[in-house]
């Protein structure tokens, strides 16, 4: 059964309560209205996920598609040091999707939104011939002047990364080879979980916002690509030590030979990579450890470039701006 | 030639200058940042257009697709009484679209954005198998408490509409029957222009914002549907006089028999329909006429309902919440 009535569908996805005190009018009029918190800058981003490109029925169920569509946007807010507040969802629906699965997409989003007290305040619902397309816009806020850009790296900085990297691409690899129904090992499941339920690093971004100067990026296209973006925006060289890159036990067990490739070029980990003054590093490390965050120093910033080098046992290898490019892969 | 390089494409669509003084960071980082104007509420909306559903190569060229994708969103800002400020664009691109046509979409948007000093500050560029999908998010602002909702109609109000209605649907009808290449009469062209280049009524919305209480809606789904939304949100009856509905010379010449159908159920006119106190009506009419705006009183609001009636020479006919519904048509 395809979706019969747009208005009935919207009634069902309309939130039953409001979390943000600044919300004036959510779903139900021509546009949404909110009063921004004073002394805060507004942050906004927008990402699209396409059936057959970003997901398919073998890699993610509808709930996970919803979760991830929101998570990737929240991750962008985290990479600015901000707090997510509102989201809007536009969905283009083909005839072969049923209402239960569509509602499940919104439930996956609502689960994550609740964690951050975010409100769904608008969007669009349209039909399409072939493939489901979901576009999410997320708003956030950060104390005026306290945001983090990629352009703030300076020579002498420490390069750090949160969590472990490469797991999402490894998880996708498991899914593409085994399918969603296959019996999986504990390690397989850990990797798949990172692909299906990436956790945006909002709390860590907020911890960083207590520091004066941080350059920051979230890992959507792989460590090589994100590091190059920082190098380019800041006009510096980033040197990453291969033996410092944090890998999970799961990826080292399942994919020891491909772990580096997945970390550098796989993407979708939605961890944070950044740089900060060496003098701040010890304080950050202490605070992160108190809070139980996994945090690794993976290299240093130096004068020159822009370029990114991987230090492999003393041998420097240039890392190109390669990652997921939608139109060459 | 399909799109080869996402980064190269983004470089080309990136605006060369900034119009809004509140913009802190636009395209080029994880998210965009802006400082909202003080004492203003923020407005946000999001609309999607799908190839084969909202347009095809016989009804609109790429420049017009871009123009309209932005216009429909600005129209929602206008319907809140607001000023548009920023926009974000997410586009899913199939292989059979070439880069020149894609850039043309962004040029069509930029043309309209310039009119309102809006800045393009973000979005996404992804691939898709079959059909082009374009989603636009528009931000705007309105003086705190001065926004217009659909729920503000009261018994005794005048119902008004801007411009003429039904032209867009009539124009689409011409296009679907003749194709974009056909030799067209002056009237055909006028109707087609309303379909391809709807003009959001931002200035009129701002004029309305000098009045205390206005209920307002933009005509995206047809007069019947929009009037029902006001009736429902306000808990009143809207009675529209058939002989007061403003039609263009073009529609009356080409489609006299279908003009009413197009006006009530066609949609995409992006005119404004609203209600206000009778005591304010004369002042509005005077101000509108001074500025050269076409404005018509088309009926009155009364107690009861919610319902919408069409007065056809004294005979009342109930108008249902019918309009463009993506999943029943």
TrEMBL record, chains A, B:
Keyword Repeat appears in the UniProt entry: no
EC assignment: 2.7.4.16
Binding site residues for Mg(2+) 5: 221
Keyword set, alphabetical order: ATP-binding, Kinase, Magnesium, Metal-binding, Nucleotide-binding, Thiamine biosynthesis, Transferase
GO biological process: thiamine biosynthetic process; thiamine diphosphate biosynthetic process
A GO term for molecular function: thiamine-phosphate kinase activity
Chain residues that bind substrate: 54, 268, 324
CDD domains in the cross-refs: ThiL
UniProt-annotated binding residues for Mg(2+) 4: 30, 76
Domain PurM-like N-terminal: 28-142
Catalytic activity: thiamine phosphate + ATP = thiamine diphosphate + ADP
NCBIfam families according to UniProt: thiL (TIGR01379)
HAMAP family in UniProt: TMP_kinase (MF_02128)
UniProt similarity note: Belongs to the thiamine-monophosphate kinase family.
Name of the protein in question: Thiamine-monophosphate kinase
Species whose genome carries this gene: Bacillus timonensis
Higher taxonomy: Bacteria, Bacillati, Bacillota, Bacilli, Bacillales
Gene that encodes it: thiL
